[in-house]
Amino acid sequence: MIDNEKLLNSGAVLKKYKRGEQLFEEGTIARYYYQVHAGEIKMNNYNEEGKEYIQGIFVKEKSFGEPPLFSDFKYPANAEAIIDSEVWQLSKEKFLKLLEENPKIHYKFTSTLASRLYYKAIMVSEISTQEPEHRILRILDYFKKNNDPQITSSKTYKVELTRQQLADLTGLRVETVIRSIKKLEQKGELLIKNRKVYR
After folding, report:
1. CA dihedral angle for residue 143, residue 31, residue 79, residue 38, rounded to 10 degrees
2. In what order do the strands lie in the sheet with 22-24?
3. Which of 17, 42, 90, 122 qualifies as a FRET site for 79, CA 20 to 30 Å off?
4. Which SUPFAM superfamilies does the annotation name (predicted)?
């Protein structure tokens, strides 16, 4: 999103997080801009029974948790390292100044936030109305496009998400995800090779 040199020049600090370590908690005040340098970060919530719902997974060069920086509300979810990760951290004030001084970066953020809003709207509709197989294909296509914008629809995408993560992203049970993936393979929508899923 923002190149490393510009982040450094703006005063960003590269922080290390161990697997399972939280970067921020739901309900806390947003004070920093975060961008993944290495590793994977997820934003999630838990219901009263302790079931996890993953809002999104963010990989190298992806930012997360920005909306509260632009308005006066607290984080609607937690952020947690899925694996050992390195994340750029830039104070809210310096981040907003950076955007003000760089209209092209500001536009890129507007575009990214619009895409995320679209994804959220689609997923709310999918979770409430669509069959499991459809939900899974929708989320896989989103990650295929979002994690590699240069990828074409004809190019095979290796799914790095676990069956559990797919369940947490779609509101399904793990068993349902496993059955649905097998059905989708039989229909030719997916390929399973060495237990890895390809779309």
Report:
1. 60
2. 22-24, 78-81, 41-46, 52-58
3. 122
4. cAMP-binding domain-like, Winged helix' DNA-binding domain
DSSP single-letter state for residue 155: S
- Give the pTM: 0.75
Note whether 1 and 35 are within 8 A (CB): yes
Instruction: Please write the tens of the pLDDT for every residue from 145-180.
Output: 877 655 555 678 888 889 999 998 888 899 999 999
Residue 142 confidence (pLDDT)? 83
Domain that holds residue 192: 130-198
pLDDT above 80 (res 189): yes
Query: Among the residues of 38-190, which ranges form H helices?
Result: 67-70, 92-101, 103-129, 132-147, 163-170, 174-186
Please report whether residue 25 resides in a domain.
Answer: yes
Same domain, yes or no: 147 and 77: no
| Among 89, 105, 86, 81, CA closest to 19 | 81
What CATH number has the domain bearing residue 175?
1.10.10.10
Q: Are residues 62 and 148 in the same domain?
A: no
Of residues 188 and 123, more confidence is placed in 188
Characterise 157 by phi-psi region: left (phi > 0), alpha (psi -120 to 50), beta (else).
beta
Distance of alpha carbon 102 from alpha carbon 71, whole angstroms: 20
Of 87, 102, 117, the position where a domain reaches its end is 102
**147 and 68 part of one domain:** no
